[in-house]
Amino acid sequence: MKVIVTGASGGIGRGIATVLAGSGCAVGVLARSGDKLESLREEISAAGGTCHASAIDLRSEKEAAAGLNALAEALGGVDALINNAGLVILKSALDLEPDEWRAMVETNINGLFYATRAVLPGMIDRGSGHIVNISSISGYFPLGGGSGYAATKYAVTGFSESLFQEVREHGIKVTTVFPGSVDSDSHRHQGDDGSWKVKPEEVGKAILDLLNTDAGNCISRLEIRPLSRPPKP
Ligand SMILES: NC(=O)c1ccc[n+]([C@@H]2O[C@H](COP(=O)([O-])OP(=O)(O)OC[C@H]3O[C@@H](n4cnc5c(N)ncnc54)[C@H](OP(=O)(O)O)[C@@H]3O)[C@@H](O)[C@H]2O)c1
User: Fold this and answer.
1) Ligand 1 centroid to 99 CA: how many Å?
2) Which domain holds residue 218?
3) Which of 27, 32, 120, 158 is the most buried (most CB within 10 A)?
């Protein structure tokens, strides 16, 4: 299977790319940090896997299209796109600067839209494909202290679930993923080592499972949460 993972330079995206490559998928990875992508590419190659990397900023429609197209060409097609890249700024409405609001909208909503549009025509032509959109529990449940972030994730949920209705009859699956607490740098809090959280590789394993469902059905929603609770302060 040929899979593109956005936001794979760290956190959940890196975990997803590593697990998929380890299971035999050829992966295309994308983010802004070229050095981190290169070290991931080397790690996957050293383990005998196939990885192509493209350092681009998804907030630019042109860069997104060029980066996704280059990866699709290098892979020889795209069976699945994992829209994982995201910007997390957890502030209440009055504390969040308009520039920060715009950066989250441009990354979490616009970037995901551009990436999706880059791969959809090829999938429609082939009559198959899978788009996995990483939303959040904050994409259906209010998050006081993070209203701007939640707004972008509600948008991801709305887009993703509506997209499923638009493309299912073309044989294309769309899954919306709702992670709870996952151990990544962007979600590290002072005094919490993150050991109780879901590991990025565990999200990767769950995504591998849903990519491997039979052609006639789609896991359209996936929620993944840790069993443990945060340590008491
Ligand atoms: N961790 C959690 O508990 C949790 C829970 C629910 C949902 N999520 C969602 O899961 C996804 C991954 O989160 P994470 O915790 O792994 O965050 P992370 O560690 O900060 O990783 C975010 C990734 O997105 C990339 N990215 C950010 N802006 C980009 C841009 N403009 N263009 C291209 N790539 C960009 C980053 O790479 P560069 O900086 O190199 O560009 C990085 O690879 C996000 O969508 C987040 O909302 C996370």
Assistant:
1) 18
2) 2-224
3) 27
